[in-house]
UniProtKB/TrEMBL annotation, chain B:
InterPro entries xref list: ABC_BtuC-like, ABC_transptr_permease_BtuC
Transmembrane segments: 12-33, 67-88, 100-122, 128-148, 160-178, 205-229, 249-274, 286-304, 316-335
Source superkingdom: Bacteria
UniProt name for this protein: Iron chelate uptake ABC transporter family permease subunit
Signal peptide annotation: none
Gene3D superfamilies per the UniProt record, alphabetical: ABC transporter involved in vitamin B12 uptake, BtuC
Location relative to the cell: Cell membrane
A Pfam family assignment: FecCD
CDD domains: TM_ABC_iron-siderophores_like (cd06550)
Coarse class of the protein's main subcellular location: membrane
Family indicated by similarity: Belongs to the binding-protein-dependent transport system permease family. FecCD subfamily.
Originating organism: Lentzea indica
Keywords carried by this UniProt record: Cell membrane, Membrane, Transmembrane, Transmembrane helix, Transport
Length: 265, 343
């Protein structure tokens, strides 16, 4: 297993503010990594920097050993796909057209549509289970269906690295599980490398091989869910008093917050 | 490597085909009607090189250049509007709203009034200086809007707001020129800034035709990026689009198209605003179709000019007709966008 994506002494910021501070991270090929941390800790910023959407103030992001901001952006787009948080599509765009846009990095002005593209779109729709919605417009889909359509677009891009920024936001629990099962399947059946920002710690514990916990722009813990999700870490990173028990279904850590209403004896 | 092809949908293709037939029909009818009425067969006969000497003169010297100017100007305005609306992702974005046409208007009126009162406007200055000044004015206004709205990239709504400001500045400058200028010059300028095809000859056709021959293929080729630009910036960049480069290039193409069109026929109102939306609704696509907007824009201006010169005893400028049709449409757009914002 080789390192696919790497941050080395990475600093990223907006204006005066440094949001990611001298951070080192290595993502091994074929793994699922979940980035967790409190609001404003810099996890989405890290993900954007890893996807070359934000420039490094110092340090670098390396994709397969090469500095990502020196590579042609189209070449990066053939290897690394990104699903931003709450993406927007124009009114009236059909699902088929949305997913077809995922083929953009493989096209040029003289070769705008090929049978490869058609096959990739067909497969991406089938894999996310939305083939029958292909002619519907994106705005008339439910939240869960819409998220599947966007994931389908990222799949059609045919990249083996996939970065997902809070893919379960605005979804009810059943649809959250649905989307994460799909992510798991992509990982298991196709060996894709996945990095996602997640808010739900219990779902992160279930679906990720590695958890990266961040606070104030730095990584404070990194490793298997059982190692990272401890009561001490939760208090330290989230300032949350919680018990960690074993998930009766998956055997992974299950975080049970204490809160002020239920003081323990 | 798969087969080389373009993904084509039937409905947008049908729309373009029907619009092309309509365009040809409007062109023939436009040439038939006038002080010397001609029949369909006379028109076609003359176009193929036959007909009497009188028919030849009426068709080739009087009506054909005017109709073609209308067709080409409409096509350029339609394409310009389609590019703006696709990039800014707002149906309000068009060279009329973004100040480009008014900038072109201010440029041209400067030539009419300043050069006119100094006695410099002679044949060549009038036929060459006016379109060039219009082009320059449009470019200055368009680039100014672009530069002022730029903040680490282009955001559509900010561009519309800045554009409204530039429109007001250019409009007021134009009115100032009309006030201080010679009465006769001001009269000529008034007709020009309403947008008129009156007296357009081949010398007006050629510049617009050249611009379109170069810029339509450029826009259609560059337009393949438009599909990937219709999302938020992050998604577009994730798809490997150099967002700011692609957007800047296409906006400059759109500014030049609108400026060239305005230089030839004056700022014909609402064509660039309405055409892409009409084409979009007919084609059933999410983005204004580029080629469809060219064809529908051409048909729209020719048809409006036909109405303008036949509806009343004296001839009206074509801009009056498009304004009468377009103003209610603009109100509809504003009402509709407010309703959406509330939902």
């Amino acid at each position: 297993m080789s390192v696919r994506l790497e941050a080395s002494s990475l600093c990223v910021g907006y204006g005066e503010r440094l949001v990611v501070d001298t951070l080192d991270l290595s993502i091994v090929g074929g793994t699922v990594t979940a980035v967790i941390g409190p609001n404003g800790c810099g996890k989405s910023t890290l993900l954007r920097a890893l996807a070359r959407l934000l420039p490094a103030r110092s340090g670098a992001v390396l994709l397969d050993g090469k500095q990502i901001d020196r590579m042609p952006t189209r070449d990066v787009a053939r290897v690394l796909g990104l699903l931003p948080q709450a993406p927007s599509a124009p009114e009236g765009l059909t699902v088929a057209d949305l997913v077809a846009r995922g083929r953009h990095p493989h096209q040029s002005w003289y070769r705008q549509w090929s049978s490869d593209d058609a096959a990739a779109v067909h497969d991406a729709l089938a894999m996310t289970g939305i083939s029958d919605l292909a002619e519907r417009t994106v705005d008339e889909l439910s939240g869960g269906q819409r998220q599947r359509a966007w994931i389908s677009m990222a799949l059609a891009q045919g990249t083996d690295l996939l970065l997902l920024d809070e893919p379960t936001t605005y979804l009810d629990l059943a649809h959250q599980i649905d989307v994460l099962d799909l992510v798991q399947e992509l990982h298991a059946s196709m060996g894709r490398t996945i990095i996602m920002v997640l808010h739900d710690l219990n779902l992160a514990a279930r679906y990720a091989d590695t958890i990266v916990a961040m606070r104030d722009g730095r990584i404070v813990a990194q490793g298997a869910p059982g190692e990272v999700l401890t009561e001490a870490m939760l208090l330290d990173v989230f300032g949350l008093d919680a018990r960690v028990v074993e998930d009766p279904v998956s055997g992974t850590p299950l975080v049970v917050p204490v809160g002020s209403r239920h003081r323990l004896p | 490597m798969g087969a080389t092809s373009f993904r084509l949908r039937r409905r947008p293709l049908t729309v373009v085909a029907v619009a092309l037939v309509l365009l040809a029909a409007v062109l023939v009818v436009d040439i038939m009607i006038g002080d010397f009425p001609l029949t369909v067969s006379q028109v076609i006969d003359t176009l193929l090189g036959g007909g009497t000497r009188r028919d030849q003169f009426v068709v080739m010297e009087l009506r054909m250049p005017r109709a073609l100017t209308g067709l080409l100007v409409g096509g350029a305005l339609g394409l310009s509007g389609a590019i703006f609306q696709a990039i800014v992702r707002n149906p309000l974005a068009s060279p009329d709203i973004l100040g480009v046409t008014w900038g072109a208007g201010a440029g041209a009126v400067s030539v009419i009034t300043f050069a006119g009162s100094l006695g410099v406007v002679t044949g060549s200055a009038a036929s060459l200086g006016l379109p060039l000044a219009g082009l320059a004015g449009g470019l200055v206004a368009g680039l100014l809007v672009y530069a002022l709205a730029w903040r680490q990239g282009i955001e559509g709504f900010r561009m519309v707001l800045v554009g409204i400001g530039i429109t007001a500045v250019a409009g007021n400058f134009t009115h100032y020129l009309l006030t201080v200028g010679d009465v006769q010059d001001a009269g000529r300028a008034m007709v020009w800034i309403t947008g008129s095809l009156n007296g357009r000859g081949w010398e007006h056709v050629v510049p617009v035709a050249l611009a379109l021959v170069v810029l339509v293929p450029v826009a259609l080729i560059g337009g393949h990026v438009l599909g990937a630009l219709q999302f938020g910036d992050e998604t577009s960049r994730g798809l490997g689009v150099r967002v700011n480069v692609a957007r800047s290039f296409l906006i400059v193409v759109a500014i030049v198209l609108a400026s060239v069109a305005t230089a030839a026929a004056g700022p014909i109102a609402f064509v660039a605003l309405a055409t892409p939306q009409i084409a979009l609704r007919l084609a059933g696509t999410a983005q204004p179709p580029l080629f469809g907007s060219v064809v529908i824009g051409g048909a729209l201006v020719m048809l409006s000019d036909l109405v303008a010169r036949t509806i009343y005893r004296t001839e009206l400028p074509v801009g009056v007709v498009t304004a009468v049709l377009g103003a209610p449409y603009l109100m509809y757009l504003l009402v509709r966008s407010r309703r959406e914002a509330r939902l």
